[in-house]
Specification:
Elements: H1 2-18, H2 21-35, H3 43-84, H4 89-92
Helix pairs in contact: 1-3, 2-3
Protein name: KRUF family protein
Length: about 100
């Protein structure tokens, strides 16, 4: 049961980040501000960071959302196996 919840938590975390472009961009820019040397970088640099973050989001979002769906599907499969009392691979190997 803990493993199923872990899969769902991972899926939710992925969706939280990758379903909201503006939040993703804001987080990326904030991380760069924190790591940066200057507490007040030039506006042009911040604008470039935003553009980079948007490009990264567009390149990666579809795959990450798919990863989240795969994790949820895996959790559902395991939950259904537990609910039906189906024999798991661990049971068949003489474990648990």
């Amino acid at each position: 049961m803990l493993g199923i919840q872990s899969l769902r938590n991972q899926a939710a975390a992925l969706k939280e980040v990758w379903m909201n472009k503006e939040m993703y961009v804001a987080r990326q820019v904030a991380q760069r501000l924190v790591r940066g040397i200057s507490p007040t970088p030039p506006r042009k640099l911040v604008t470039e960071w935003k553009h980079q973050a948007r490009r990264e989001f567009c390149q990666r979002a579809h795959k990450r959302i798919g990863d989240a769906a795969a994790l949820e599907a895996k959790a559902n499969v395991w939950e259904n196996k537990l609910a039906t009392g189906a024999q798991t691979d661990i049971d068949a190997a003489g474990g648990i």
